[in-house]
Amino acid sequence: MNIEVIVPLVVFLLFTFAIGIWSARKRTGAASFLHDYYLGSRELGGLVLAMTMVATYGSASSFVGGPGIAYDRGLGWVLLSMAQVVTGYFTLMILGKRFAVMARRYRAVTLVDFLRSRYNNGLVVILGAFSIVIFLFSAMAAQWVGGARLIESVTGMSYQASLFLFAAAVLFYVIIGGFRAVVVTDAVQGIIMVVGTLIIFTATLIAGGGMNNIMTSLYQENPNLVTPFGADGDLTALYVSSFWILVGVGVVGLPQVAVRAMSYKSSAAMHRALLIGTAVVAFMMFGMHMAGVMGRVVVPGIEVADTVMPELTMTVLPGWLAGIVLAAPMAAIMSTVDSLLLMISSSVVKDVYINYIKPDASENRIRLLSLIVTAAVGIIVVAISWSPPEFLIWLNLFAFGGLEAAFIWPIVLGLYWKKANGWGALAAMVTGIASYMIISIWLPGWLGMHEVAMPVLFSLAAFVLVSLLTNRQQNEWAPLENN
Amino acid sequence: MSLEEKEKKLQQLTAKEALLGVAIAVGHFIWWFGFAYGLGGRDPQDYQYILGMPDWLFYSCVLGPVLLLVTLWFVVKFVLRDIPLDQEED
Fold first, then answer.
1. Could you tell me the residue ranges of all domains in chain A?
2. What is the DSSP letter of B28?
3. CB contact under 8 A, A211 and B53
């Protein structure tokens, strides 16, 4: 592997180190360690908010997996990927200012804090914290494996050495820098992702001899490639549309995304973010997935979907540009794992330790513990990724769907429905997770939709029914005492 | 204005803005779906090509997001309100 590809990656890693140090220094003036370390003292501006939401959500699959499938199945997968554009504005508009105001009023640091003050129900808190830790841990482990494999393929180092390098880079800035380092690196990573998309899209378009030529070649190879129905004609309208839940509106329920909606500085920042975020998601998804489809004409005959983008990049770009483009999936993976790592740490420290074990912990103790927990979670996940157990990889497949099915209604109805109560929220979480696991394992593709679609409806039904049945249980907002 | 009225106004404003988000998403979905399967459902040899892309893809996935952004810009500029987020309850 040549040096030109490695240089941009190294520059990028050094840059993230600098951001970690800067963030830790900036914290010295902050009023509350907890609010600063886990929420950046709620001072996100529009651009950083938009970029951190897009980058946290957009992971390896947006840059490697997704375009690889698009290569295989044609324009139908581009259409499917565009279901994600709604996330750019929907999460911010739905949670909206009410979420931001309530989170401030009750000094909520985590999503579980919000659920705790809204429902005042211990079981909701425990189940919430538990699902976050389990699901996000497995999601994070899978991303670490992806990051290490990517470095391995680009640099030619061993898997273990790649994992070590990747881990050292991410752990350093997350542990010392906290949320501020995470979102600022996310913003830089988001910009790298946009630039990478622009370069690979343009280069592939040129290499393929222009859009007309590419579409003609695809049509001649298999007319289905230019239809919305996929190369084998098996992508039904219902199936593709059901992704609007998994990767579209359901994203409201992802804790790592929702927590960002309580961390912005002002309503003006939120307004700007929903414009920027929508533009960036639309551009990135269309550009990367189209590049995947067009790549079929440029580099035909690739068998393994995950190797499509690396091979295409090396074919159509000179070495130094390829380095920048390959930094994009790297950035996407880093910007996802850093957020998940901090999210798990906040759940352990705030939702479990401060809530249940030591409510009167001193500021210094919380400071030390937060750093230790973040480091410990990071080290454990690296140790597991060293040779990832099957179970973890399997669990990861359910992580995002499971979290969406669990949290979407407790968050949304908790905000907008007065009669929502703790038992309803609990029923929704249990029903959502259980029915999602059952359908995924025993009834894949049930009713021709993605497995998360029906559980979201079941969860809603359970929430409404149980809330109405137990409506004598008064659920007033309870302020959090120990922040 | 009393605190209670102020709180009520906040509730109404935020609920309205959230509903607007739902309405935009519904419109967005209909546009995306309508052009993709309305035009894309024809025999591929009847497709027209715009900027080199099949017409369904252009309308659904290129023009759609552009119009969406214009809509969002109008909404941000003329509908959404700037409110202080640090509102004390009492």
1. 3-469
2. H
3. yes
